[in-house]
Amino acid sequence: MKIKLTYLPFVIGILFSLNGAAQQNKSETAWPETKNVSKPWARWWWMGSAVDKPNLKSSLIDFQKVGIGGVEITPIYGVKGEESNFIDYLSPKYMEMLGYTVKIADSLGLQVDMVLGTGWPYGGPQVSLENAATKLVVEKYEVKKNEQFNKDIKADPAQEKVPAQLLAVSAYGADGSYLDLTNELKGNVLNWKAKKTNYTLYAIFAGKTGQQVKRAAPGGKGYTLDHFSTEALNAYVVPFDKALVGFEGKLRAIFNDSYEVYGTDFTPLFLQEFEKRRGYDLKKYLPQLFSKEDSEIGNRIKSDYRETISDLLLNKFDLPWTKWANSKNYKTKLQAHGSPGNLIDLYASADIPECETFGSMPYDIPGFRREKEDIRDGDADPVMLKFSSSAAHIAGKPLTSSETFTWLRDHFKTALSQCKPEVEDLMLNGINHVFLHGSTYSPKRAEWPGWKFYASVNFNATNSIWEDASGLFNYIANCQSLLQAGKPDNETLLYYPVYDTWGKNLGGNLFFQFKIHSLKEWLHGTPFYDTTKKLMENGYGVDFVSDAFIAQAKVKDGMLVLPGGSYKSLVVPNCDKMPLPTLEKLIALKKEGAHIIFEGLPKSVPGFNDYQAQNEKLEALLSSNKTIVNPVSDLFKALAEANEQPETLVTTGLKFIRRDLDGEKIYYLVNHTAKTIEGFIPLAVANKEVLILDPLNRKTGNAIVKKERQTTLVKLRIESGKSLLLKTENTASEKPWKYYEATAEPIALKGDWKLTFEKGGPALPAPAKVTTLESWTKISPETEAFSGTALYTLQFDAPKVAADNWQLNLGDVRESAKIWLNGEYIGEAWSVPFTINLGKLKKGKNELKVQVTNLSANRVRDMEMKGKEWKIFYEINMVDKDYNKFDATKWTPMPSGLTSPVTITPLKNEVN
Prior knowledge:
alpha+beta, Galactose-bd-like_sf, 22 helices, globular
């Protein structure tokens, strides 16, 4: 849509609402409706819960206008000086504000999620010591033969702020004997004589970690909850049962953040649960359990311990939590990573599994900036991301969400262009419900830069990137509208052998968490990881599967059927340990016609109970089914025999994900290489027309295709940093796609640029005339300190070159731009490469206007250089990316504006 520019300031003010509406009117037959769930959502930090109705409404309107589809409310610590405005969590005033938020959000077409508590992890004032996070405490005593032991057995008071509960005392004789002395206790006193031999006594306690809720809001402080106990969970939700009456179905989902329950590895009923689940009394084997020695028996018992913890977290907490939420017509959203359990099963226990990324990843895109001094290395490993999306896919959950952009750059230094490839990698690995991390509620009374959370990009109206943020948000919405359509279309299942991790000595550590920040400890370098990478790099769509989901698998027409869909094959990577029931089920599935592909065979069953007899059964099972379980020497040949056709487009360097929509295929293709990828790109579908959709601008058109036997070749040109969506069709539904090619070298635009500073601060610098484009920070001290928006205007003569279109290349933009040509709005350029097609030029004089917005960093630097304090927050105040003291005075001014030559290139449409 083009807008006649007669009064520039007015048009700038209303531009995005008009442009957003215009986007919705283009090619409605090709693009699905952009619903609130397909738009990005934001985690909304309520500092001190010091919210009020006018500012809540204003903030929600800001979200709606810029293209955010919903908010997830997380109350946290407050702002100094705002104490009189703090609202206690779940108080009548708080619930009034929550109800008002839901009401206004609904009127704006937004939805609301909430955390079941404040800060993280779950906990609060209603958590009694009995139900608080628990740890295993052990005291050890040596007793000589014939020695009388008469002591009050207590945990070391130096290590225990809260007295630990004594659960059991066991004696282990030097002759190998075992005695349970628990019934000998009188209270905590044991009076016992070692009659036969020397003994080692182990006393087991249920201690308390003492962990308090992190970043708690007013009214939310208290102990962290025991995450291995349904009784503790049931007690925890009592205040919510009362407070949320009337909210049933009005809140969309209840959120549970990443597992950061530190030091908890036990629950008071653990010993009973262990015996019920593992089939033997753990107390008999405490020396092996606590031994640091790398021994088979000790490792097997440790494996059983870890599996029991996983079972309790899943069955005593996560599943009951989802059941509780669903009973009130809420969905659940869970970050399972960091948990001490099988991530696939834990993610799948929620309605919406959620992953997260942390830090900044490298990309080869020319012009993509990743300044070392501003970033911390990221951990967005595609294999790790797929644990959450795989859980959603195999369990039939339509959405996989992500906490996105956490610590992407240092504060005030994240550009929209730096967000784009990071979010693309999420979507390429199955995430289709992006949550921004995050947006801080900041009332109008707060002085700039407003209230800020310590660890996020802060997507709100006080951050200068908000000016053009709708470009990023619309892009995400356009992609997600198709990535939420239909169903996942991965054809290969890959077995995840969790017991190979559980069964290791792990330095003698009893407790183990599957953290995203420690992938080297449990993921990298494993056969599972290597096979995943091999499959993905060769164009196979992969989902991971656990033992529990294999148990649910069925076979229909040669396909493996899980609750979430069907697969052509299941690959078993080289693994050391596999439960006997899993192997039995895999063999049974293969006998029924499923394609089960073994890269290697398990050597043993996991765990300790009756393991020797089970190993004999495993060996007999493998021996009697040699032809069925015979490991393959060529994995790709075996996949071809399962009628799997890889997407060989990956050989071009393109990344992809594919979905199925009523038998047609949707492809999301992204070019993160250093070069333009063009030519006829193969799709693993036969005899199809192909619709091209550009998520940056919603332009569509039917591609030129060549149809071969099992492949459709589609003509594409994707510049480095760009992406396209493709949809297969039986017949062409749109006008032909326009394939523009440059007919000459880029032509530099020369002349005097008029530079006018329009909005921002600390003050608007005087207008300037610029002949050579470079950072506006070099013009004056006022421009060096300025953060906001400025307008570049240039009069230039149209080159005497024939062209169907002209491509504008703004070069190095710091950081985002809107463009007008001859008074007509053309569009926005916020991502690398900063190019846009202008259309036709007028003969003679043309006028180009480019409105550029920089980052907030220079203004923050100026504030701190002048000694003005703005960091006024409780608890963790403001820190840098490495969690050190935040100090912007150390920064150098960040380049701003148009900083390199601007060019135009004549284009010709190859298809006329």
